[in-house]
Specification:
0% strand, HTH-type_TetR-like_transc_reg (chains A, B, C, D), DNA-binding, mainly alpha, Tetracycline Repressor, domain 2, 9 helices, transcription regulation (chains A, B, C, D), Homeodomain-like_sf (chains A, B, C, D), transcription cis-regulatory region binding (chains A, B, C, D), HTH_TetR (chains A, B, C, D), homotetramer
Chain lengths: 209, 209, 209, 209
DNA sequence: AATGAATGAGGATTCATTCAT
DNA sequence: TATGAATGAATCCTCATTCAT
């Protein structure tokens, strides 16, 4: 069996196992067995548990980022771009549940190796969303209402967190998961109006009872 | 040193270490050392790694839930209740970063023991938010616009995910973390307008370009 | 509670636990708990696991030896003395099953401490039986047929082994254990005729087919 | 070194150590060292202390049973069969003293794992002997004197116990152990006459002085 | 391209034992 | 007389990793 094929099988198996168990509880034995190869071969191709994990993360984050970024047509309006990106995001996470479980489950553990790689992926997504929000602000053509970078970043984090949460929620109901389109709509429903208001300078404020 | 005190020290240390490393990578040695006690004593009081983890999770989820639930005055309007709950949530997670790291980091790993307990905590929070949303719908007094349970659940998940993400984001900037009030405001800004629209029967829809 | 009483409770508990688990698998915790005392007290009175075990063995072997030896009236004929000794043996082992389990189960493990003490007890019993056999030989008043010491020792070992085995067998059928008298009769039935024959110079010999 | 060979070395070492120390006091470290292998290898091949013990017991009981059962020619008379079986038994236990020590030492400890397996081995031997006794009864062709099953079982237990005891006795005098043939003769001497008497309906009875 | 054989290092857990009171 | 608090030392077991073939 040619090396490239074997290597892909190994990564597939590793993603599966890392998703199921987490990094430290995953065992190279289980991975090798699931990959249908002997452990020395796994080591020959991928060197160590840490590198294997790194390779999994790189492969899966690239795939997810590609899916999201290529879904947003730069010609479109900001809300359409966001909407398309979200649809692509939910479609991808639903199509690759193990990959998403691996990426999302340990995104914030600091001790594990490659926590940084995971954090970077997350940052890239957040940045992408932040750009969309900023672009929407420019579409609005109201320089006065411009949000500061800090605030945009916060909004992007909120949006991404909501998306992650919805992706996980959708994946748990394996039987009757709502289609990506619907999940994306839910999220647009909750957030877009608020974003528009913000960009128009309207803020929610607590009403003294 | 009396047992109760020691036990609390141990739980504190364990929360710290579980947060730093995750369940499986955490070692009882490290926990015992951080607690300033010997390993056998940890076992004497808390029986096993699994039970220790369980005790940590129970203690910290209860504390977080209490903080959030007791912050919302049932006499208030729905948006005020949500606002107060969020403020309490962000204040608590900021005050107990390790606890929040422990609770949030592994919320979705399935293999670990107590994944279920974690999932239940999350569900309780989601339910709490879902109630608030439903209550807001009733405040609106428009029976016709009532959202179905499924949709409310989705919205709640989105909101909770956004909150979790913001809490993590706030905690990473230890130096200049925004105050809970501000973070809560950000989240209300993004979501409340959308929720109100929904409750009024207005939905966001993609505009064909 | 006076020391003597407590000490007896401890020995009782220890015999029970040593019988159930064997020396090394028995834990001082279990013994202390069963004795209804704290571990430090056990150590105060009995010093160490090894000494505790020694005390148990001494107490129980002395009791068993006393029972057997005091049952045989030196005025009686050899077979009566043997018969009475066996009855006493089976009665005692049936009345103190834990003690017998403790004494018999590990009689031959060499590594354990006090294996020697156990071996000595066994030797004392064997010697007692050997004396009876030798006495029976003298009763027979046939100097010519005298068995050599070696052979007598072998016979005694056989008899004692048979008795031990029967005692264990009787103890396993807790519900319907045969009375000591019957067990003793079984053993006399199998062995006495053979012994008499031997003392008369008749030996069993394989018959070429 | 091929796996089969290594595995045998491990079993040999384990039998040795279990015999010396008993199950719970035996340490996997000592076994591995005696086997000339590392501990992980022992675990790789034999899974756990418990399974290793089980494997030892199975191997050694099978060997002993085979030796005894194949020694008795079914064409022979009952006493010859018994005699041959005993000779084989004593020869085997003398040739494999560790195995016999392991099998006999803990035959009656209840808590240990595999106590049942040991008990079953013993029962198989007892049953084998019981069959011989019953067969001897049939040879006698005196239906009237037939012993009931219960009594036969008791006799078999006595005989087996005597044999075990003699085997242990023979093994302790490593220097000048009597040959198996002699030990077997001793046992036949003590027991066969009694058995024959019983089968002829004659019982020993205490004589009132 | 592929693997059976092998291990050093480390982790969870238990236990006999002691001290301060 | 009696004990709550505490631990050093072992023990079972697992895992990432390598070598010889």
């Amino acid at each position: 069996m040619p090396r490239a094929v074997r290597e892909r099988q190994m990564l597939d198996a590793a993603v599966e196992v890392f998703a199921r168990r987490g990094y430290s509880a995953a065992s190279m034995d289980e991975i090798a067995e699931l990959a249908g190869a002997s452990k020395p071969l796994v080591y020959l191709y991928l060197n160590s548990k840490e590198e294997l994990y790194g390779a999994c993360i790189r492969r899966e984050s690239r795939a997810l980022l590609d899916a999201v970024q290529s879904a947003a047509d730069p010609e479109d309006s900001a809300d359409r771009r966001l909407w398309c990106g979200l649809r692509a995001f939910f479609a991808h996470t639903a199509a690759h549940p193990s990959a998403w479980a691996m990426l999302s489950c340990q995104a914030r553990i600091h001790g594990e190796p490659f926590a940084q790689a995971l954090a970077e992926l997350r940052q890239e997504i957040v940045d992408f969303v932040a750009q969309l929000i900023a672009a929407a602000g420019r579409d609005q053509e109201r320089a006065g209402a411009a949000l500061d970078a800090e605030e945009v970043s916060g909004l992007a984090h909120a949006l991404v967190g909501a998306a992650e949460s919805l992706a996980g929620w959708a994946n748990t109901r394996a039987d009757a998961a709502p289609p990506a389109k619907e999940t994306a709509a839910t999220l647009m429903n909750v957030t877009w109006a608020g974003l528009e208001n913000l960009l128009n300078g309207q803020r929610w404020a607590p009403v003294r009872p």
